[in-house]
Amino acid sequence: MSRPVLDIVALRSLTAIADCGGFHRAAQTLSLSQSAVSQHVRKLEKALGRPVVEREGRGTRFTPEGRLLLEQARRILAVHDEAVRSLFEADGDTVTVGSTEHAADQFLPRLTAAVQAVRPGCRVRFRIDRSARLVEAVERGSVDVAVYVTEAAATEGTPVGGLPLTWHTVPGWKPPPAPAPVPLVAIEDPCAIRRRAIATLAAHGVPSAVVGDAGYLAGVLDIARTGQGVALLAAVGPAPDGLAPYAGLPAVTPIAMSALARPGADPATVEAALTAVRELLR
Description:
This protein is α/β, with parallel strands linked by helices and 282 residues long. Helix content is 43%, strand content 24%. The protein has helices at 8-20, 23-30, 34-48, 64-88, 104-118, 131-140, 192-203, 217-224, 267-281, and strands at residues 53-56, 59-62, 94-99, 123-128, 145-149, 158-169, 182-187, 208-214, 230-234, 244-245, 252-261. The strands form two sheets. Strands 3, 4, 5, 6, 7, 8, 9, 10 and 11 form a nine-stranded mixed β-sheet that branches. A hairpin with a 2-residue loop joins strand 1 and strand 2 (59-62). The longest helix has 25 residues, at 64-88.
């Protein structure tokens, strides 16, 4: 009996849905129709035999099986893209840029434009991962330049500014009456933004409790869309589908971001990337 096959193109659509916050934005990012992205998801669901993404109001929600598939998809795509680069593009002009999930939909288009402005015709590949893993990928040479949360990695890199953070939840959400703790939704530890959320509330005497966490941002958004709690998210670009900024909690200071380039990377490309990120965070 043959085993199911996970299609690489479909897996890329799945990760784009998670990174962009929905089918529509994923389709725009991938330069595909929304129906094509939907077909890719159905193909994965057929192979898995279970639903992976469900509609929830105006947004989307990953099922538990979908979150597991998403985690494996990122690993598969990282290995696949690194293999393609090593085997087929050694002589081609390709740049791999990395970003944390936080504000990736804002960072990556600007990084792409910046790189292609100084290297016309260059192919740009993406790597989205946790900060520490991005730094490791840069040091291995599989990522050319990456943007990440400074305190989440052992390597400081080049400071590029502060990422603004804002509380987000479903429209009309209200916290439970005191003295009940504020319910938080966050990426599982270790996560610098999770720590920032808890520390900020504690500093203002506001008790809190994490009521839901996930390995990736997509899972955090899914839980937040159920109205179970409030999430601290990057405040760059539009709010994720189904969520809105919430002003009823103490303001949070921006979190420092850094960029790191692999040894031997083209200086003009690196400088263009750093400038693009600084302008976004300014």
